[in-house]
Amino acid sequence: MSHPTHLPKAELHLHIEGTLEPELAFALASRNAVVLTHADTEALRKAYLFADLQSFLDLYYELMSVLRTEEDFEELADAYLARAAAQGVRHAEIFFDPQAHMVRGVSMETIVMGLSRALDRSEARHGVSTRLIMSFLRDLSAESAMETLEAAKPYLDRIVAVGLDSAEVGNPPEKFREVYESAAALGLRLVAHAGEEGPPEYVWNALDVLRVERVDHGLRAFEDPKLVERLVRDRIPLTLCPLSNVRLRTVDTLERHPLREMLAAGLMCTVNSDDPSYFGGYAGDNFHAVQGALDLGHEELRELARNSFEAAFLDDDEERRARYLAEVEAYSFD
Ligand SMILES: Nc1ncnc2[nH]cnc12
Ligand SMILES: [Zn+2]
């Protein structure tokens, strides 16, 4: 089908817990005898009106409490991969938040092995290659992050990178300097959320203190011309999430999203879905929405798709990257 929704792309900013659809949440709640505060899926969907990042996070953490067993994590990931594949995603780099589950007594093994069950057969079943990114919760302590890194050591062959998410303002990158140094020493790649709600200074410090290779969101970097110059010079990928930005009110409307200007400034932008169950769309929906709202041309859409594969952690499989890039060039919009 010829539609930007189906343009071949890599998804580089996707929280697996943010793919939990209301129907699956209630099914898992029932299976695991977890009581949710919302009566049914309809009541839950009505709660998806957020004032800011924190109001979303409150619901996100509550709802993910239904995830308990390997099967739960497997089902969650498999459902996401099926949806992603239907929207042109050929490669997905998937965040998970172990601390949010470990506080409830769910082990790192349950989380990683459960997700891996779905990821390991994703290529055969969905035609989507995958990577896992372990994300630290920045509103918890650096000590907690370090313990989480320690707990992940037996599973490092399944984890490509570490990330940093949750409540940004007041939890700057430099809080996690040592954790990132340890992660790098273990051979993990480094990314971090920065400049979603936080100021450009947080993006500078993600680059200069944490030494990240990609910036998740990076939206507010556009306020600082010197920072833009740096990001362009070093070709640092930004994993933008347009529908998320509208729902969490970091931009007023999609029409006012700076994506088009950011591309024109030479920034290496990618388009992703963040928490698609909560924000009204998967990766292809985000492409479709920005095309309509910002009147992006086919060349800009192709550039976004190309960027996603160039920014992907596929350095161990350049043949695959080349194949995906060729699919982008061969895609016909009409
Ligand atoms: N958009 C987002 N920002 C920060 N932390 C998150 N965790 C899940 N989605 C997030
Ligand atoms: Zn995110």
Automatic annotation (TrEMBL):
Residues annotated as binding Zn(2+): H13, H15, H193, D274
SUPFAM superfamilies on file: Metallo-dependent hydrolases (SSF51556)
Gene3D superfamilies associated with the record: Metal-dependent hydrolases
Catalytic reaction annotation: adenine + H2O + H(+) = hypoxanthine + NH4(+)
GO cellular component: cytosol
Domain (Adenosine deaminase): residue spans on this chain: 8-321
CDD domains linked to this entry: ADA (cd01320)
Active site: E196 (proton donor)
Cofactor details (free text): Binds 1 zinc ion per subunit.
Residues annotated to bind substrate: D275
EC number assigned by the record: 3.5.4.2
Family to which the UniProt record says this protein belongs: Belongs to the metallo-dependent hydrolases superfamily. Adenosine and AMP deaminases family. Adenine deaminase type 2 subfamily.
PANTHER family: ADENINE DEAMINASE
The protein's role, per its UniProt record: Catalyzes the hydrolytic deamination of adenine to hypoxanthine. Plays an important role in the purine salvage pathway and in nitrogen catabolism.
Record protein name field: Adenine deaminase
